Amino acid sequence: MEIINVKGFVAFTLAIILLFIGKFATQHSPLLRKYSIPEPVIGGFVCAAVVALFYYFLDKQIEFDLAVRDILLLYFFAGIGLNADFKSLISGGKPLLILTALAIIYILLQNVLGVSVATAFGLEPILGLMSGSISLIGGVGTTVAWAPIFEQMGISGASEIGIASNTIGLIFACLMGGPIANYLINRHKLKTNKDDDLDIGISHENHVNLDHFSVLHAWLMLNVSLMIGYLLDAAIAETGLQLPMFVSCLIAGICIGNFRTLVLKREIKAGTKKGLSLISDICLGMFLTMALMGLQLWQLQSALAYLSTVMILQALLSVLFTVFIVYRFMGKDYEAAVISSGFGGITLGSTATAIVNMTAVTQQYGAAHRAFIVVPLVCGFFIDLANALIINWFVGFHG
To answer: Which residues cross the membrane (predicted)?
Structure first.
C-alpha cells in the first residue's frame, strides 16, 4: 500500500475548492436548501469518496496534513464570543441548564444502547461504549484517549470500533440536523426570524457589501481573542481542569466584546459585526470540510454488522429524543427548532457539526441568537465534564 502525504498548504487549498463545490451545489439545488444540508458536507464527502476509491482500486492511501483545521475552529468560536453580549448570556441561563440536563440524560441513554447492542452481538458489553458517548459525543479525541485503556483491560478492537463509529456518526450528524429543523418548523408552523442579522454567515437571500477595513478590524479582534484564549487555556490547565481549547477562545471573545460595550461604551460597528460573521462562517465551513476530507471510509468494513445495527439505532434514538423531548423542553418555538438541529450534531458528531447545522438552518430561515449562545456552551463545557464522569462510571460498573 503506497501512502501519499498531502502537505498542509495543498490540503488547505483543496479544502477551499471543495467548499466552493459545496456552495455552488447549495445555490443551485432547492432540495439542499430546503433541508438545510450544510455546504461543507457536499465537498467533504466528495473528497472522502475519491480517497476511498484510491484506496480500494489503486492501492493508494491518501493522507492530508490537517494541522490548520483546529486553528480554524478557534477563530470560529472566538467570533461567537465577540458577538455575544451579557444580556443574551443571562437570558440563556434557564435554557442552558435545561439543555445540559437533557444532554446528561441522553449520554446515559446513548451508552445503555451501545452496551445493549454489544451484548446482543456477543461482544464485551464495555465495548459498546465505543459506539456510545466515547466516540459520538466525545469525538475522536476521547476515542483515542480511551482505546489504550480498553486494550489494557484485554478488550481488542476498541480503537477501530470507536473510530468507525465516530465516522458514521459524523456523516449522520451532518445530514440530519437540517431535516429535523425543517420538519419542526413546518410541522408546527413556527414563526421564523429573517429580520435580524445572522450570528454566523449570510442568508441565502441577502448579499452584503463590506469594506476591507471592517474585515481587517474583525480579523484583528479575532486574533486578540485567540491570544488571550491561549493564555486563559494555560491558566485553566494549571488548575488541573482540562477543557477544549475553543472554550477558552469563546470566553476570551465574550470578555473582549463586552468590555468594549460595557466599560468603553463603544459598540462594535455594524460592518465589523458582518466581517466577524463572514470570517466565522468561512472558518467553520473550512473546518468541517477538512474534517470530512480526513475520513477514512475503509475503516467501516470491520465489524460491519455490529456497526450498521448500533449506528442506525443511535441515529434513531437521536432523532426521536430531539424531536419529542429537546424541542418541547427548549420552548417549542423557532429557537427551539434551531437548537434541535444543533442537538443532532452534538449527539452524533461534534461541536462543529452542531454549529454548522444551526448555521445552515439560520441561513435558510433567519437568526436564532439564543441558540448560538446556549449550544456552544453546553457542547464545549458542560457536556464534556458530564461525559467524562459518566464514561468512568460505566467503565467501573462493567469493568
So the answer is: 41-58, 70-90, 96-119, 126-149, 161-185, 216-237, 243-263, 275-298, 304-326, 338-360, 372-395
